[in-house]
Amino acid sequence: MAEAKSNKVNMKTLAKVLNVSIATISKALRDSHDIGEETKQRVIETAKLLHYVPNPYASSLRKRSSNTIAIIIPEIADSFFSQAINGIESIVGQEKYHALIYLTHDSYEREAQMFNDLSSGRVDGVLMSVASNTKDIKHIQELQQAGVPIVFFDRVCEDIPTAKIKTDDFNSAYMATKHLLERGCKNISLVTIEGYPFILQAREGGYKKALAEYQIKHQEQNVISCSNKYNQENIAFLKEHIAKIKPDGIIATVEHLATTTYLACEELKMNIPNDVKVVCFTNQITAAILNPPLTTVLQPAYDMGRKAAELLFGHLAGKPIQLEKENITLPSKLVVRDSTRATD
Amino acid sequence: MAEAKSNKVNMKTLAKVLNVSIATISKALRDSHDIGEETKQRVIETAKLLHYVPNPYASSLRKRSSNTIAIIIPEIADSFFSQAINGIESIVGQEKYHALIYLTHDSYEREAQMFNDLSSGRVDGVLMSVASNTKDIKHIQELQQAGVPIVFFDRVCEDIPTAKIKTDDFNSAYMATKHLLERGCKNISLVTIEGYPFILQAREGGYKKALAEYQIKHQEQNVISCSNKYNQENIAFLKEHIAKIKPDGIIATVEHLATTTYLACEELKMNIPNDVKVVCFTNQITAAILNPPLTTVLQPAYDMGRKAAELLFGHLAGKPIQLEKENITLPSKLVVRDSTRATD
DNA sequence: TTTATTTGCTTAAACGTTTACTTAAACTGT
DNA sequence: ACAGTTTAAGTAAACGTTTAAGCAAATAAA
Predict the structure, then answer these.
(1) Distance (Å, whole) CA B249 – CA B181
(2) Boundaries of each HTH lacI-type domain copy (chains A, B) (predicted)?
(3) For a pLDDT cut of 70, what percent of chain A falls above it?
(4) DSSP 8-state assignment for residue B331
(5) Section A70-97 average pLDDT
(6) Cα B339 from Cα A219, distance rounded (Å)
(7) A136-140 contacts: CB < 8 A, separation 24 or more?
(8) Could you tell me if B147 lies within 8 Å of chain A, comparing CB atoms?
(9) pLDDT tens readout for residues A159-187
(10) B187 and B248 in contact (C-beta within 8 Å)?
(11) In the sheet that A125-128 helps form, which strands lie side by side, from edge to edge?
(12) B273 touches chain A (CB under 8 A)
């Protein structure tokens, strides 16, 4: 058990032990044709015996590639993103890559800062959901022009020509709204958050389309934009809106708005679904045990993350994938529960 | 705008442009005493102008340190871990470090594999929660002996002499149990998951202590061990237990067991809190809007992550921190809601 | 004035790999 | 037997930093 001293064992060590050159070690470990079968075996054996693990930084420096990707997302305490990471990780691990994680907290400045750092060659590729207040996309363009492939998921940047994995925001909002209309709602509010022009535009579009189909005139005041964090002020803000507009249906477009909406309704003594019916975009398993159980738009978070990673790694592996041609939409699912139960 | 060609600009480029040596560039950028003030400014200016970003791999190779840490956790789709990552990230970002994320999925084999990789010098330190089925800790010992500092949070490994950030599992389980006893429960089940001897031992200990104080004899059959994933089989398994034991109180020790427990009770037509009162260890904000609102043991996830990161970075920065002496316990909080409302 | 010291910079080696190029020996076919 | 090819190695440069050591000129101390 004493064969492996804590002194770093590197190729030089192995070369010395085996009395061959460093090049032989390197080639043997990468299974090069240059090296004889017997030598290869000897190298592999002693490498294992001495617990040799290659230095990734030397390798990355020389090869100009790092076997590392970056995951850049706005936040992590959200079931959509954590499930998406699970999907990403399922590929990253399998491909023996490493994943750096960066949280922008929806700040453009941090995002730009991160991209600046990444232009160093730190990563071979990027998987990202853009920050809500990113308007200027120069940082993304520059990284892409520097040759780092980028794949967007969920919160994509339409103006960058690369792969985008989205869910059908327009359609799922349309379905959700139609569902409320079918259940008799006539005055539906759309509760969104600041930022995310594309996604929110799509959801608002689907919402409006459904209204139009039911000959309901859309009112600007029925669309309310909260701040993107769960707190007391948000609840108060929403309460005010509900008290004023008295909607009979609410579509909450992000996860934490479910709690905000339920608490606001409770404080206003408005019963769900009798006084107001609620649908929320969320992936939380607790939706089923809420009071009442919440009708949700369930997004394919895991699959989106996985698909995004598959495209990126396919590209990195040199497969003939034209990232800019990949524009994939995975369907969300409306899961109907009691928060939109028919009442009358 | 044409000053920065996409050709990688490195120290050599800067040296050529400014007609000084590479060493001067390096030292100027690191604000060395060796370099004159005027030269420093010129270097910094042109570096900015040409969008120079240092190559992290060259730097890491030479300095034998990577400005990177590893976060190793069992899973990520769990509010405790995602909040803990938020806490960690708050320090990582501020210290200009980078964080690699690894998910063990509670598998010892993957964990050991990851540690093996990390012995390459890939990271300067590790923040981790150990996998549930990790019994053999040789991989952890070896990395530590190789000089990589490790800080545990939540799911610690008691046999490794290093910093451990825990929450008071014993006491919070004790409080939760006592709370149920005060509310009149006489037959309390503890629902746990497989693995995690230390944490579960502590929680079971607290549970037993409370029972003892109330002169209730502990029954082995009241402790049930589910599998650590949310699915239908788990619900069925728990239903069976509840049907057999007919507990009037349940303590669910991990987040996803809340949903499992609620659904099991619902299927058995057992009313919470009338027929059975429920407490769960969870950090989800939806606890407040469940049916009924769930009494929770709220763990200081963010603070635990943050504290763990603080210790690690303090150590890395050379502060006089003796990691092996740090054994910190942050209190959890019992948040009482309707799932344990007094009835009778 | 002479000797130390400081200032500001350069030289060159090192970190641990990978790889283009070279080389010597062994095999091939004629 | 000999030119040509294949096989199995080795040599050395390169990746982009950091840093110990050196050195000339300027400054300070005696």
Answers:
(1) 8
(2) 9-63
(3) 98
(4) P
(5) 96
(6) 40
(7) A136/A108, A136/A112, A139/A111, A139/A112, A139/A115, A140/A115
(8) yes
(9) 999 999 999 999 999 999 999 999 999 99
(10) yes
(11) A327-330, A164-167, A150-153, A125-128, A68-73, A98-103, B98-103, B68-73, B125-128, B150-153, B164-167, B327-330
(12) no
pLDDT of residue B7: 67
- Of B71, B79, B110, Cβ closest to residue A77: B79
A216 to chain B, closest Cα gap in Å: 31
Three-state secondary-structure class, residue B271: coil
Residues B51-82: pLDDT tens digits? 999 999 999 999 999 999 999 999 999 999 99
Q: Which residues, 6+ apart, have CB-to-CB distance to A300 below 8 Å?
A: A167, A330, A331, A332, A333
Alpha carbon distance A334, A299 (integer Å): 9
Q: Examine the pLDDT at B1 and tell me if it is beyond 50.
A: no
**Strand D closer than 7 Å to the CB of A21?**
yes
The domains found in chain B, sorted by start residue, are 11-54 (no CATH), 65-166+301-330 (3.40.50.2300), 169-299+334-340 (3.40.50.2300)
Q: What is the DSSP letter of B123?
A: -
A76 Cβ contacts chain C strand, under 7 Å: no
Smallest CA–C1' distance to D18, residue: B62
Which among B138, B135, B64, B125 has a CA at the least distance from the CA of A4? Answer: B138
How many helices (DSSP H) and strands (DSSP E) are in chain A?
Answer: 12, 12
- The number of helix segments (H) and strand segments (E) in chain B equals 12, 12
Tokens of B293: 């609102």
**CA-closest candidate to residue B301, choices B69, B79, B113:** B79
- B 60-99 residues, CB < 7 A, strand C: 61-62, 64
Element (H, E) at B249: strand B249-252
Q: Which of A11, A73, A80, A101 to mutate to test the interface with B (most CBs of B within 10 A)?
A: A101
**Letter string b/e over residues B72-97, b meaning 16 or more CB atoms within 10 A of that residue's CB:** bbbbbbbbbbbbbbbbbbbbbbebeb
Largest distance between two CA atoms of chain B:
88
Contact A147 B6 (CB under 8 A): yes
Give backbone dihedrals phi and psi of A118, rounded to 5 degrees, phi first: -70, -15
Residues A163, A160: Cα–Cα separation, whole Å:
9
pLDDT value at B6 more than 50? no
A69/A115 Cα distance (integer angstroms): 12
Gap between the Cα atoms of B151 and B122, Å rounded: 16
Helix axes B56-63, A56-63, angle to 10 degrees: 140
- pLDDT of res. B79: 94
At A303, the amino acid letter reads D
User: Sheet harboring B333-335: ordered strands across?
Assistant: B223-226, B188-193, B249-252, B277-281, B295-298, B333-335
